[in-house]
Amino acid sequence: MATDGFGRRIDYLRISVTDRCNLRCRYCMPADGVEWKSPIEVLSFEEIERFAGVAVGEGIGKIRLTGGEPLVRKGLVDHVRRLREITGLEAIALTTNGTLLSRYAEQLVEAGLRRINISLDTLDPDVYAEVTRGGKLSDALAGLEAAVAAGLDPVKINVVVVRGLEQDILGFARMTIERPLHVRFIEYMPVGDADEGGETSCAALPGGWTHADHVPSDETLERLAAEGAAAGLGELVPVSKDDAPGGWGPARYYRFEAALGTLGVISPLSHHFCAECNRLRLTADGKLRMCLFSDEELDVRGALREGTDEDVRALIRRALAMKPENHHDRIGTLRRMSQIGG
Ligand code: SAM
Ligand code: SF4
């Protein structure tokens, strides 16, 4: 079992398999994208699998593949299959925008994937096109249906809540009534847009996050409860940890009384959960990040390309020792969310 310098158990690794994406969500990427890492900079699947093997030996039990958009990288299904073969790895999950999922859902299940998170911020096609700068809602919804049909479980829907954006939260709540879907409302986070010093602490990042855009989760919950009651969905009640849909993270879950699915909130800003942080992050270009909000990184790629497994193991131990206690309300990071993996 791996613990960090503050006694937290670290058993969860998020791996970004690519920094590329087929969408340009406004809160995640600039309109003209970011400068992609060159193929030589990006870890090969073989390198990722080697790293994952060492990490599992150090106590990682859960791996989430993310990006960029992980499904734009060719060969992802076989990558999942090979990761599944790592002895000691309990589970693999995928976070995706879902737009390519209808093509891959069945193959992913056959390769050993069980859990999936689909990012979907609105149920209005025009707003979806606006938020994603050109995405088609019907593609994401087809991906969602394919995930359910293929038997992925749990199927979670990630909704980043942004003030001023038309987000039919009652529509999302209704999705949880008759099917075991789990919608999680995530607070919009100030990631990206920092200057080279990385020490930005301004209230408004240029073209990015502002305090005014942030909706605290408690406000979302109040709105859900009120709109749900008015629509006859009954009372919104808390779901105990045992009944929650097997999360790896800090979501708090609720449900409308008769619902098969749940509604969760993830509140990195309004309810700090650093004390329960259980994760490390590996970027597509092979940097190990100890905290989403810290630009401190360790060079795994160098160790993988020039070193032994022992060197890689030493880096993981160093990362555990260096993991900060909390994010100190940091605003802005050098990398954008698409370059970190969420
Ligand atoms: N492309 C995939 C997707 O959209 O699910 C995986 C990568 S994306 C960076 C991972 C998650 O980060 C998504 O759920 C996305 O909505 C979320 N995300 C991106 N930028 C964010 C921000 N500024 N605040 C909160 N969540 C954000
Ligand atoms: Fe792409 Fe996901 Fe970022 Fe949207 S949130 S731009 S889909 S990486």
Describe this entry's structure for a reader:
- With 342 residues, this protein is of the alpha/beta class.
- The chain has a single domain, classed as Aldolase class I (TIM Barrel, Alpha-Beta Barrel).
- The chain is 29% helix and 17% strand.
- It has 10 helices and 12 strands.
- Strands 7-8-9-6-5-4-3-2-1-10-11-12 form a 12-stranded mixed β-sheet.
- Helix 2 links the parallel strand 2 and strand 3.
- The longest helix is centred in the middle third of the chain and has 14 residues.
- It starts with 11 loop residues before the first strand and ends with a helix.
- The site of S-adenosylmethionine has 20 residues, from strand 3, strand 5 and helix 10.
- Iron/sulfur cluster (SF4) binds next to helix 10.
Question: Can you summarize this structure?
Answer:
With 342 residues, the protein is α/β, with parallel strands linked by helices. It has one domain: Aldolase class I (TIM Barrel), CATH 3.20.20.
Q: Assembly state here?
A: single chain
Any idea what the CATH architecture is? Answer: Alpha-Beta Barrel
Helix content: 25-40%
What is the approximate shape? globular
CATH topology: TIM Barrel
The neighbouring-strand order within the major sheet is 7-8-9-6-5-4-3-2-1-10-11-12
CATH superfamily: Aldolase class I
